[in-house]
């Protein structure tokens, strides 16, 4: 310890016996550090007193804390107690406060010091109680701190501030601020800056405005810390003009002031240009730049996807020596990744002197193809993954369709306890749904502790996308009982109902009623799903009603109604809606054009269809997909223009698909063209050897043209390859004996029903009556057969 630190201590002579002085000197000598110079020890022996010893102990603990050595500070405090220097004689309230500060959130040591302060009666000092509360707050035992606070008779502003800074929830913290005002607490700069950090959302912003008016009245608006907090508060609330006004009104601006404005603008999304201007102004005025300055301006590049500025900032970071810092490096990686320059992001990663979990997570998200290997390297580096890491990894595994790796990751998440977290569970549900492993998706769903509506939506969507419509409906009914459905819930379940013939339309109507009850009928996603559901289930009038009730009609809505009209073969309504959509300057998308082309196909309007098909690339710069080409091939084929259809198939990028070839095969049968039909059939049979449709179509072509040998050959090939014709199924709704709505399916030749003989007899009778009706119509007779 330096000499001057000892010379500052004033020693007072006291009239004690030689024995007492010798005993006291021995006690003090034991307290001193081992390297204390001997002449300083002699000075202490010559004139020691209780106050001098206490002052020295406090000074020693404070110095240890200043040197960031809390263990040494606690050792000095503990050594005094172990040597038998009784509490009130050698330790005072300052000593206790310093010791509690040295605990640094260590609950075990903190509780021991707290116990000593209670036993020694030091808790009567409000500063000691404040220190105890601060210790518990840092240790994560905020309930203990709050309990102590509520027991204080006369808390000071520090007491209130200690509790205020410990809240996690904004709403609870803001309520506490209101309580402070009601209790007459005089706010200081720390109170305002802490309170403003919780002022988020509409209510928080309102409270922040009230605090601002109080600050102006109390004259604290010139305080640098308070002013910086207001800049942050206004920026976070999206009121950048007010943030700039507070900034401009400040006479003294430190680096934090500039960073507060820069950070707010960079998070504003569309204010990247202003953020860059502020950064340049900082440099022009010679304001010191730190890692916060660089991370903020780099964030702007992420939002704007501005590669040029990103490279300039990167160069400046290298020049100033900030590029290797973790926070700066992470933002540079993210910026390059968002700009699509993954190689540059990888280069920044390998140049970083230190990497944390964010660094590795960014690398995993940016390099989906190598995500799994990067994850293993991360674990070898001793970095423990977090939720975001696993979400990025699961997404990469899903995109790469790495089923085995996905199962392994699920196992790791179960072992590490992440599987029960909603965000991780939702990711696994989506992944398994993509892999068509619905049982595993359900297991992932069941592992989630707290199931929010997002988790339910993921399961409903997974079932719907994989064709399990009835399971999707059941999951929706369970979700409605456990949580409040949102627009995505209804979007998925209505899609399931729309695509499933074995689900009654009444379930869709019940969903509609639930939507009206929740007030979601104005949402474009929900309205479009409703419109589509009614159209696919044959209720075009209900679709029109939903469409007419919508106040705002965007591209998605117009496409939905056009698709509805197209599916019902209403060519005139399709074309009029399409024209009205274009007149309102709403650009059609690929789905819109597909619906219009489908309508042209069903109506046989080949030339109009060709015109619209050409306008996709000519007028809207849209590249036709396989579905558009398939529709045009079918349109030409139905019209008998088989040669043109064949030529168009050659132009399809990547070659024709099975559905397009099957459509062409159907046209060949319709027009009796076995030559082209044989070529098309061979292609289909080569691509899908087990698909019965192509064999049946080719058999019918040969049979209708009297080519029985070729037809028999098709039959032999089917038997040889064990190809069986799929049985068609129909569905019907009925009310059972208990009054419940039930749907039943049946197929040709099905005799599972107990009254199947009576049913087939009635079907035959209806068939005969239909034939008679047709004969009557042909003969022109004016009577009706009953």
TrEMBL record:
Family: Belongs to the PPR family. PCMP-E subfamily.
GO cellular component term of the entry, any: mitochondrion
UniProt-recorded name of the protein: Pentacotripeptide-repeat region of PRORP domain-containing protein
PPR repeats: 254-289, 523-553, 554-588
Keywords: Repeat
GO terms for MF: RNA binding
Signal peptide bounds: none
Any one biological process term the GO annotation gives: RNA modification
């Amino acid at each position: 310890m330096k000499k001057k630190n000892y010379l500052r201590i004033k020693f007072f002579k006291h009239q004690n016996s030689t024995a007492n002085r010798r005993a006291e000197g021995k006690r003090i000598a034991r307290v001193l550090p081992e390297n204390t110079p001997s002449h300083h020890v002699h000075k202490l022996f010559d004139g020691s007193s209780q106050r001098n010893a206490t002052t020295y102990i406090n000074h020693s603990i404070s110095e240890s804390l200043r040197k960031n050595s809390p263990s040494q500070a606690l050792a000095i405090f503990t050594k005094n107690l172990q040597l038998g220097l009784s509490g009130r004689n050698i330790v005072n309230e300052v000593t206790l406060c310093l010791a509690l500060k040295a605990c640094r959130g260590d609950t075990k040591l903190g509780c021991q010091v707290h116990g000593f302060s209670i036993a020694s009666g030091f808790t009567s000092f409000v500063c000691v109680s404040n220190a105890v509360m601060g210790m518990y707050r840092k240790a994560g035992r905020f309930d203990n701190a709050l309990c102590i606070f509520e027991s204080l008779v006369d808390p000071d502003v520090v007491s209130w501030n200690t509790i205020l800074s410990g809240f996690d929830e904004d709403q609870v913290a803001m309520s506490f601020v209101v309580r402070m005002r009601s209790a007459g607490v005089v706010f200081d700069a720390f109170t305002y800056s802490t309170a403003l950090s919780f002022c988020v959302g509409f209510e928080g912003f309102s409270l922040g405005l009230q605090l601002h008016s109080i600050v102006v009245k109390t004259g604290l608006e010139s305080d640098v810390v308070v002013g910086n907090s207001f800049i942050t508060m206004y920026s976070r609330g999206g009121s950048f003009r007010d943030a700039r006004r507070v900034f401009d009104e400040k006479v003294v601006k430190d680096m934090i002031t500039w960073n507060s404005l820069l950070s707010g603008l960079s998070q504003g999304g569309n204010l990247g240009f202003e953020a860059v201007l502020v950064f340049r102004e900082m440099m022009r005025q010679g304001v010191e730049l730190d890692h916060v300055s660089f991370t903020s301006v780099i964030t702007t590049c992420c939002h704007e996807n501005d590669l040029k500025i990103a490279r300039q900032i990167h160069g400046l970071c290298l020049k100033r020596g900030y590029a290797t810092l973790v926070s700066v490096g992470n933002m540079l990686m993210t910026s390059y990744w968002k700009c699509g320059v993954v190689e540059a992001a990888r280069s920044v990663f390998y140049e970083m002197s230190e990497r944390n979990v964010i660094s590795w997570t960014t690398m995993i998200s940016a390099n989906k193809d190598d995500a799994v290997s990067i994850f293993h390297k991360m674990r070898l580096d001793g970095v423990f993954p977090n939720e975001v890491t696993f979400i990025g990894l699961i997404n990469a595994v899903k995109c790469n369709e790495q089923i085995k790796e996905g199962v392994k990751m699920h196992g790791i998440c179960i072992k590490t306890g992440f599987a029960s977290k909603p965000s991780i569970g939702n990711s696994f549900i989506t992944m398994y749904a993509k892999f068509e492993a619905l049982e595993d998706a359900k297991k992932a769903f069941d592992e989630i502790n707290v199931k929010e509506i997002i988790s339910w939506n993921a399961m409903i969507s997974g079932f719907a996308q994989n064709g399990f419509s009835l399971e999707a409906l059941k999951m929706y009914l369970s979700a409605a009982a456990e949580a409040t459905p949102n627009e995505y819930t209804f979007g998925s379940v209505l899609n399931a109902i729309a695509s499933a013939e074995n689900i009654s339309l009444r379930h869709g109507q019940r969903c509609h009623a639930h939507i009206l009850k929740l007030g979601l009928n104005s949402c474009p996603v929900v309205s479009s799903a409703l419109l589509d559901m009614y159209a696919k289930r044959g209720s075009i009038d209900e679709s029109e009603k939903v469409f007419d009730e919508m106040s705002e009609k965007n591209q998605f809505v117009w496409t939905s109604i056009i698709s509805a009209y197209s599916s019902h073969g209403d060519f005139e309504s399709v074309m009029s809606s399409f024209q009205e959509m274009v007149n309102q300057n709403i650009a059609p998308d690929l789905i819109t054009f597909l619906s219009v082309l489908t309508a042209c196909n069903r109506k046989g309007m080949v030339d109009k269809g060709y015109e619209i098909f050409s306008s996709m690339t000519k007028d809207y710069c849209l590249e036709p997909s396989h579905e558009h080409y398939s529709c045009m091939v079918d349109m030409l084929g139905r019209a008998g223009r088989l040669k043109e259809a064949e030529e168009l198939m050659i132009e399809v990028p990547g070659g024709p698909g099975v559905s397009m070839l099957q459509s062409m095969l159907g046209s060949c049968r319709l027009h009796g063209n076995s030559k082209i039909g044989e070529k098309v059939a061979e292609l289909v049979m080569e691509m899908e050897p087990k698909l019965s449709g192509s064999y049946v179509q080719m058999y019918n072509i040969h049979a209708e043209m009297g080519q029985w040998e070729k037809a028999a050959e098709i039959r032999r090939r089917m038997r040889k390859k064990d190809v069986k014709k799929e049985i068609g199924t129909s569905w019907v709704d009925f009310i059972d004996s208990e009054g419940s709505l039930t749907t039943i399916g049946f197929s040709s030749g099905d005799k599972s029903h107990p009254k199947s003989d009576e049913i087939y007899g009635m079907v035959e009778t209806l068939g005969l009556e239909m034939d008679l009706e047709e004969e009557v119509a042909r003969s022109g007779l004016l009577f009706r057969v009953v």
